[in-house]
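Entry: Glucose and ribitol dehydrogenase-like protein
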Amino acid sequence: GKVALVTGGDSGIGRAVCLIFAKEGATVAFTYVKGVEDRDKDDTLKMLLEAKTSDAQEPLAIAADIGYDEDCKQVVEFVVKEYGHIDILVNNAAEQHLKNSIEDITEQQLERVFRTNIFSHFFLVRHALKHMKEGSSIINSTSVNAYTGKAETLDYTSTKGAIVAFTRGLAQQLVNRGIRVNAVAPGPVWTPVQPATMPAEMIQNLGSDVPMKRAGQPCEIAPCYLFLASLQDSSYFTGQVLHPNGGMIVNA
C-alpha cells in the first residue's frame, strides 16, 4: 500500500480525498489546525479507521501551521518516522477571507493567505522530496477562480493562480526523477469553508452560475485525486490540471 500525506484533510475535499485513498488501500496521514478543527479531525480519523483496508497502517492526524517551514519539516519527519516514506503528497489546505476591495486586504491577511495557500507547497515539497521515489505523485489543489478570477477573494484567487504555475514548473523540475506533479481545479463545492466565509445570499446561490446549476460535493471531486495518484492510471500526466467544475469551460 502507498503512503499519502494530505494537508487540510480534516474536512471538505481534503477529507474526501483521504477517504477515497484509504478505501483503495493507502495509508493516510493528514494535517489540521489544532484548536479550530479538532472535532473535524476526530470525525475524519474515525471514518478513516472504518475505511482502511487490512494491509494499511493506522491513519495519522498531525496538528500543524503549514504556512511555516519548520512546521512542514516536522510534519514530513513525523510521517516518515511512522511510515518510512511518502508516495503521494496532496497540497490541499487553504484559507480565504472575503473582501470586496483590495484596499480592505491588510498586509497581515495577505501574508497569512499566501503562507497557507502557496508557501506551504514550497515547504512541504522541499522536505518530502527526499522521501519520495520514482513513481510518486504530487497533487496540488488550485481552483476555477485561478482561471476566471473572483473579485471578493483577490488574495486567495492570486494564490490559486500561483499554484497552477507552481504545478507546471515543478513538473518540469521533477520529470526526470519520475515524480509526477499535477493539480485539480474544482469549481463551486460544498465545503465547510463556504458557510464560514460567505454571506447567506452567496451560499444560497452557490453553483447557480455553472452549466449544471449546482455546486459539487467533495465526493465528486476526490476521484480526480485518486486518478492522479495512480501511476497505473495517469502515468502520462504531469504538469496538468483537471477541472471538475460543473461544466465551466476554462483555458486550461
